[in-house]
Amino acid sequence: VGDHSASQIYVRNKRRTTEATGMRSFAHDLPADTGEQRLLALIDALNADPAVSGILVQLPLPATIDAERVTERLDPRKDVDGFHPYNIGRLVLKRPTLRPCTPFGCMRLLASTGESLAGKHAVVIGQSNIVGRPMALELLMARCTVTICHSATRDLPRIVRDGDIVVAGIGKAGYVAGDWIKPGATVIDVGINRGDDGKIRGDVDFAGASAHAAWITPVPGGVGPMTIATLLANTLHAAELQDDA
Ligand code: GUN
Fold first, then answer.
1. Which of 44, 81, 151, 223 is deepest in the core (most CB within 10 A)?
2. Nearest atom of ligand 1 to the alpha carbon of 130
């Protein structure tokens, strides 16, 4: 809904990748002045449509629409973002069903290092519903010791310096300095920040952090494409859930 510029790029990439895997993508581009009732009616129709396995409402929504009410209107079995309270609740209870794409995909990135996660100190910077909170729950489920940092956290560099795993989802370009990173740490940069020069940068000073980290994701080309791949895996999972029902 609307014309949020970053959203347009994300949605275009999601559509393109969906089609590339052989899934059908149905686009519903609504104007910024769309009323909440119209959006809820569309979700009701998609919930009921057997041709639709997954529904993704790109965020942010215009301030005139209650995003929580919209998220809660989705059929949880079609909630491929994993943001419905049912799906978040399942993750809290260590019985996940559809899992938020970015954190779930970050777990796949961590698994790909081949290193065991149990007992590692994972520092999550940011407490958003989309990234920080579900990320912390995923890491906890993998038996990490988890610290969640946010804008009121005192002495962030001290905490980050103790992190074996650092996940940054702050939304400030280059905020995490290279010398905050413990030697041998794994760094996952979820930030996507567009500078005045039009370039995309992450939340971490990549060059500085690379000197210390054993593993680090680049921006762009790291978490972004992985999130879309996870979205498509979730969509397949959602289709299976509906087949089983
Ligand atoms: N806006 C920013 N990230 C996301 C996401 O993961 N899902 C949706 N739906 N909107 C977003």
1. 223
2. 6
Based on the residue annotation, tell me whether 14 is a catalytic residue of this protein: yes
Tell me what percent of the chain is helix, strand and coil, each rounded to the nearest 5: 45, 10, 45
Instruction: Indicate left, alpha or beta for 4 from its phi (over 0: left) and psi (-120 to 50: alpha).
Output: beta
- Mean pLDDT for the stretch of residues 28-56: 98
Q: Does residue 55 contact residue 47 with C-beta atoms inside 8 Å?
A: yes
Chain segment 160-215, per-residue pLDDT in tens: 999 999 999 999 999 999 999 999 999 999 999 999 999 999 999 999 999 999 99
Question: Tokens in use for 177?
Answer: 């300095």
Q: Is 81 in the pocket of ligand 1 (CB under 6 A)?
A: yes
Assigned token pair, 92: 């809290």
Residue 171 corresponds to which tokens in the numbers above?
Answer: 């939304």
3-class SS at 151?
coil
As beta bridge partners, residue 124 has 148, 167
Its pTM surpasses 0.85: yes
Tell me the pLDDT tens digit for each residue of 4-13. 988 888 899 9
Helices (H), 93-200: 101-112, 132-141, 156-161
Kindly report whether the peptide bond that precedes residue 60 is cis, defined as omega within 30 degrees of 0.
yes
What residue type is assigned to position 219 of the chain? V
SS3 78: helix
Other residues' Cβ atoms within 10 Å of the Cβ of residue 36: 17
Q: Of ligand 1's atoms, which has the minimum distance to the CA of residue 131?
A: 6
Distance between CA atoms of 39 and 184, rounded to whole angstroms? 47
